[in-house]
Amino acid sequence: MARYFRSLGWTVDVSEPSGPESSVRPHDLAIVNLAPAPEGEASGFFERLQAVRRQDPEATVIVLGDLSPAREAQARALGARAIVPRTPYLPDLGHLAFRLTGLLHG
Fold this sequence. Notes:
Shape: globular
CATH architecture: 3-Layer(aba) Sandwich
Order of helices and strands: HEHEHEH
CATH topology: Rossmann fold
CATH class: Alpha Beta
């Protein structure tokens, strides 16, 4: 996925948000892969999304994951602008990224 977005002219940072002490340049877009939480660990399900929002509150966020309607609503409440299946068709994901950010690249 990183290679695809680089080919479209995006600068790609493949990393885990690691808290407030790691201040990196702001991002226009964050694509967050939400892995299903093990049974009984619903609180850990959105930790990655919350970490991205804390680190970069202005970024447009796309969430990858096959979410239930309740979890999709929770992701949107936490700032996700779009929810797409875990294995998206990359040209569709690229088009969505451009549309949501309003940016023109490459």
